[in-house]
Amino acid sequence: MTIQVGDRLPKTTLIRVTNQGPDATDSESYFAGRRVALFSVPGAFTPTCSAKHLPGFVEHADAILAKGIDEIACTAVNDAFVMAAWGKASGVNDKVTMLADGNGEFAVATGLSMDGSKFGMGTRGQRYTMVVNDGVVEHLFVEAPGEFKVSSAEYLLDRL
After folding, report:
1. Contact of 124 with 116, CB cutoff 8 Å
2. Is the N or the C terminus of the chain less surrounded, counting Cβ atoms within 10 Å?
3. Does residue 116 fall inside a structural domain?
4. H or E element, residue 16
């Protein structure tokens, strides 16, 4: 079942990309006591994700944080090293935290996974944006397959 607004996030492992290297954390601890704008992309270095999705959150980071968001994070079913390389190549610096969901555990547990097999990608996370407040989903905007509208930084900004 897909997670809904008002639901508590399931406890899974995520790998945070840091300057010191990969840092395993659990979703319960990561989201505790703060308001996080989390967006998910089907894959690092993929066209829409690299040209529009991640850059939009980097560009609008200050405006999003000014709306009461404590941190902006990007997740994908990629390993921490790929997420680190993508973050570096995209110039995220400290504006967006890169969270690897290498095994797809978070995507599956939230019911927000997708089958990218016909593109050689296997199980991936859907494209979405959510606001998580102390571990509870406050806003959730999931894209229709092949679209990029409701998960953009601009769309989120208009709703905060």
Report:
1. yes
2. N
3. yes
4. strand 13-18
CA dihedral 60, 151, 160, 68 (to 10 degrees): -60
The answer as to whether 33 is a domain residue is: yes
CA distance 79 to 59: 24
Give tens-digit pLDDT for 79-126: 999 999 999 999 999 999 999 999 999 999 999 987 777 886 767 889
From 28-37, 38-47, 111-120, the region with the lowest mean pLDDT:
111-120
* CATH number, domain containing residue 74: 3.40.30.10
- What are residue 129's DSSP bridge partners? 39, 141
Residue 86, domain member (yes or no): yes
Q: What's the domain count of the chain?
A: 1
> What's the domain range around 107?
13-159
The answer as to whether 48 is a domain residue is yes
Helix (H, G, I), strand (E, B) or coil at 86: helix
Active site residue 74: no
- pLDDT tens-digit profile of 114-146? 777 788 676 788 999 999 999 999 999 999 988
Q: Per the residue annotation, which of 3, 14, 44, 49 is the catalytic one?
A: 49
Q: What predicted TM-score, i.e. pTM, was given to this entire model?
A: 0.94
Which run of H or of E encompasses 108? Answer: helix 105-109
Is residue 22 within 8 A of residue 13, CB to CB? The reply is no
